User: What shape does this take?
Amino acid sequence: MSGKAPLYYWDSCLFLAWLKDETTRKPGEMDGVREFVDKLRKGQISIITSTMTYVEVTTAKLPIGVTTLLEDVFKKRNLQKIAVDIKIAKLARDLRDYYSLRASEHNNKTLSSPDAVHLATAILYKVDEFHTFDEKNRNGTLGLIPLSGDVGGHSLIICKPVAKQPGLNIK
Assistant: This one.
């Protein structure tokens, strides 16, 4: 990795948190989001996300004019938008199957299809970390952060983006 910018995967919820400037997050969480966006803009890191993220984010209720921020960030060369191809789809299916077969080990929770696509993309593109706020089981699906380290037999670090310089107010 020497000389290469770190590569992160961003789940849709991070783009939503940034665009909405969510105030309900735990202290420091938005600092991490803002710092990573600033590093992205400066070309210090690379972020990948599924093209599915665009759909998930733009169908959410966003403040007026905020979509322009998303469009600007999505134009960055160091933010790669990865289309779902057959390789990603097959791994996503395998991950869903893996957790469906083990649902009893996870309080009968399984992996949602969108989460499976996000995880499969991150695994196949060998990211350094998968960033999300998704830590709790909800609506019958698994939280993602508890899966960190071993995602269906694949090594993947899943965590929240952590600011090295908390308190920066970058927008």
In short: The chain has a mean pLDDT of 91. Residues 86-101 form the longest helix (16 residues). The beta strands are 7-10, 46-50, 79-82, 129-131, 158-159.
